[in-house]
Write a structure and sequence with these properties.
It is a single chain. The longest helix has 8 residues. By secondary structure, this protein is mostly beta strands. The chain starts with 8 loop residues before the first helix and ends in a 21-residue tail after the last strand. Strand 24 and strand 25 form a beta hairpin. It has a single domain, classed as Kelch-type beta propeller (Neuraminidase). The strands form seven sheets. The protein has a five-stranded mixed β-sheet with strand order 12-16-15-14-13, with no helix packed on it. Helix 2 crosses helix 3.
């Protein structure tokens, strides 16, 4: 008998992509009890990526990118309005930045369609972006030189709006790229990064910006501070920021498989001793937080690109590798891509492969634990040089 997973990706997308919220599941159950069970069982979908039919086009041509930024916006007035904003990047096939992009795109998950801003935005790559309330914020990056200005875009998306620079005060971080940004309690935190061959060492400094005052401040190093690094991952869970991976010339690339925790309340660092399937060191991976877990996808160890998906339990600090089908989708490795979480789906866009192919596709994978003992899991809630 043919499995549901043997169906074409476009069929799967229409059946299960962004499974409806709990209150609408009864209609599915009444129509087809078996489909209801399949759609509500994470066991069947764990690690299964499929391509979304959503390629960006510009003047009739596909439009790939890597080392861009992506952030997910959910309207507080209309939670069904979910938009992913993709900005910048570059098109180099090696480690020298070339063809820096300045385009700002919005993907609407309801209509499954892309729209491009017609307003001018500055060219930028290796930057980071976050969303706070009804604004997209972009900080740092490289656009011919290393940057430390702050850009903002009002949300939701309007094609006539572009990113514009906003004034800030205080102890502004020095210019940098390949850093991380996270949001916690009305503040944006910036960690790490570098300034290229002008200042070849990576940073281990930490700054925070008050969104209300638009004022930067430097946070003094305290505790077990991470070694300097760039192109690392950072996520927020409860009252802490977790940092994983990265790269700097002073350590072997494979040694960057360490995990650090920054406590926002005490402003102190600690190193986490992890167990389980600890990933090899890598940079240019992506990480997202979902529930009590951090998921890390792909990355690069300065030799090979990776296509693994790892899960870290942020309560027990145990790593698990999640079997995926990415190689079946001709994704032999992926780095410098972006990921967002929509409900219990991981959605990735762009990046490049181990063969230096630059992606213009979106792939999606349902998150969750592999509960083989329970086939009737409750339906999900909706919900210069380059580094």
């Amino acid at each position: 008998m043919t499995s549901l997973l043997d169906l074409g990706s476009f069929v799967l997308q229409e059946i299960v992509m962004f499974v409806p919220p709990r209150e609408r599941f009864q209609n599915v159950a009444q129509t087809c009890r078996r489909l209801f069970q399949i759609c509500s069982t994470r066991r069947a979908w764990r690690g299964q990526f499929f391509e979304l039919e959503s390629t960006r086009t510009l003047n009739g041509k596909s439009h790939p990118t890597h080392n861009h930024s992506a952030s997910l916006y959910t309207s507080p007035l209309d939670p069904s309005l979910k938009q992913m904003f993709v900005y910048g990047g570059n098109l180099s096939h090696n480690n020298v930045i070339e063809k820096i992009q300045n385009e700002l795109w919005c993907f609407d998950f309801a209509s499954k369609s892309w729209s491009q801003s017609v307003a001018a935005s500055p060219s930028r790559t290796e930057h980071s972006s976050v969303i706070f309330e009804n604004n997209l914020y972009v900080f740092g990056g490289y656009g011919g030189n290393y940057l430390n200005n702050l850009l903002a875009l009002p949300l939701p998306f309007r094609p006539e709006n572009g990113l514009v620079e906003i004034a800030v005060s205080g102890d502004v971080p020095p210019p940098r790229s390949a850093h991380s940004l996270v949001v916690y309690n009305e503040h944006m935190y910036c960690f790490g990064g570098w300034r290229g061959i002008q200042a070849p060492n990576s940073n281990a400094d930490l700054y925070k910006l008050s969104f209300r005052e638009r004022k930067w401040s430097h946070i003094p190093a305290k505790g077990e501070v991470p070694s300097p690094r760039r192109v690392h991952n950072a996520i927020v869970y409860k009252d802490s920021m977790f940092v994983f991976g990265g790269f700097d010339e002073k350590k072997k690339p494979t040694e960057f498989n360490d995990t650090y925790r920054f406590d926002f309340l005490t402003e102190e660092w600690s190193k986490i001793e992890c167990r389980g399937d600890v990933p090899f060191g890598r940079s240019r991976s992506t990480a997202v937080q979902w529930g009590r877990f951090m998921y890390v996808l792909g990355g690069w160890d300065r030799v090979d690109s990776h296509a693994e998906l790892f899960e870290l339990d942020l309560e027990t600090y145990v790593w698990r590798e999640v079997d995926t089908n990415l190689r079946d989708l001709q994704v032999n490795g992926i780095q410098a891509h972006s990921c967002v979480v929509l409900g219990d789906w991981l959605v990735t866009f762009g990046g490049k492969s181990g063969g230096d192919k630059i992606f213009d596709q979106m792939f999606a994978c349902r998150l969750g634990r592999n509960r083989t003992h329970n086939r009737n899991i409750s339906p999900p809630e909706s919900g210069s040089e380059s580094e």
